[in-house]
Amino acid sequence: MITTAALICIVIGVIFNALGAIGILRFPDVYTRLHAETKMTTFGTIFVSLGVILYAAGMLTGTGDAQYLTLGIHTAIAVIALAFTNATGSHAIARAAHRSGVKPDPAVVDRLSEVKRRD
Amino acid sequence: MIRLLATMVAAFVAYLLLTAGSGDILLWSGPELVAGAIIAIIVGITSYRIFCRSENLRMANPLRILLLLVYAAIPLLIEMARANIDVAIRVITGRVHPGIIRVRTGMKTDLGLLLLANSITLTPGTLSVDVDEESRDLYVHLINVPEALRTEKSVDSRELFTFFNIPGWIRRIAE
Amino acid sequence: MNDIFYAAILALLLLILVAGIRLVIGPTVPDRVVALDTINTLMVGSMILLAAYLGQTIFVDVAIVYALLSFLGTLAISKYIGGEL
């Protein structure tokens, strides 16, 4: 039962990761690619890790081996660190891209460039 | 002094989480506990100036940390799921109307602004690009700017989210 | 269950190759950084799966350190191309 849940989580995670990887190939400019990268791969990795945590929980109740407790806790810490650093890192990339002169293209509105031109 | 102590406790808790399941005093073995205490003291002395910048210790309140976990587990995850399905559809169809708009946040602290910027990046089709340090306004890149927002000079941060009042949650956690 | 882990690891490695295409052709430098960040995230995911597949918990510790170090690398490159370093 819990193995099936873990399996479903891992499959969902791999699908989202795949969409993220295809998204950075398909989208037209840096900012839209960042959307694909940050959201899809972070969400996919969260689901993959959730699958591993469920698997570890199932094995822990099945065998009582303390190794699986360590596996679950460490996976949770890894995924929390990943989610937090990914969001901050994509913010840094977007800011650096705008500062280095890569403008969003196509764009229907760009308030940040308007402010910079006024300065 | 209180900053030093708070940093040491935080480092010790992090060490305990990383070594859970190593022995039989509760979950930890004796040598691990001693080593963890020594490492926590060293880390505390070297990094308390960076870790606790202000004397204000409101984030040490366990209730706020619990609220942060609940926030990450329910509203943030649901908004993330909605955003991901939205972006997934756009990956397949390739229909985007991107643009950068200005968002009023109304946050009073840097930590609140950090949490809001990260939440915006992880949720519905939005990505924080830059921040106005004085007014604490964010410049947000939207993958699909709705018609109604294209002409407005600045947008309230609540309009970016659909199901939950995320800025309200963050204000309750960080301020 | 082990077969599932193996298949998932192979799928993630294939996706790393797909992201590598963007790393090679990316017209601007930020594009390449985005591709590199994607590769890092996928790598952390596959390391976690590898730990479960081989039953070696130590790989997850490697994944934690990898995630934090890749974040530092991304920040350093971003500061550099943004002209703040």
TrEMBL record, chain B:
The chain crosses the membrane at residues 33-51, 63-81. Pfam families: MNHE. It is found in: Cell membrane. Keywords: Cell membrane, Membrane, Transmembrane, Transmembrane helix. It comes from the Archaea. The lineage of its organism: Archaea, Methanobacteriati, Methanobacteriota, Stenosarchaea group, Methanomicrobia. GO terms for molecular function: monoatomic cation transmembrane transporter activity. This is Monovalent cation/H+ antiporter subunit E. One of its GO terms (cellular component) is plasma membrane. InterPro entries: Cation_antiport_E. It is a multi-pass membrane protein. It comes from Methanocalculus chunghsingensis.
Automatic annotation (TrEMBL), chain C:
It comes from the Archaea. It holds the Pfam family MrpF_PhaF. It is a multi-pass membrane protein. Its main location: membrane. The chain crosses the membrane at residues 33-55, 62-82. GO terms for molecular function: sodium:proton antiporter activity. It is found in: Cell membrane. The keyword NAD does not apply. This is Monovalent cation/H+ antiporter subunit F. It comes from Methanocalculus chunghsingensis. The lineage of its organism: Archaea, Methanobacteriati, Methanobacteriota, Stenosarchaea group, Methanomicrobia.
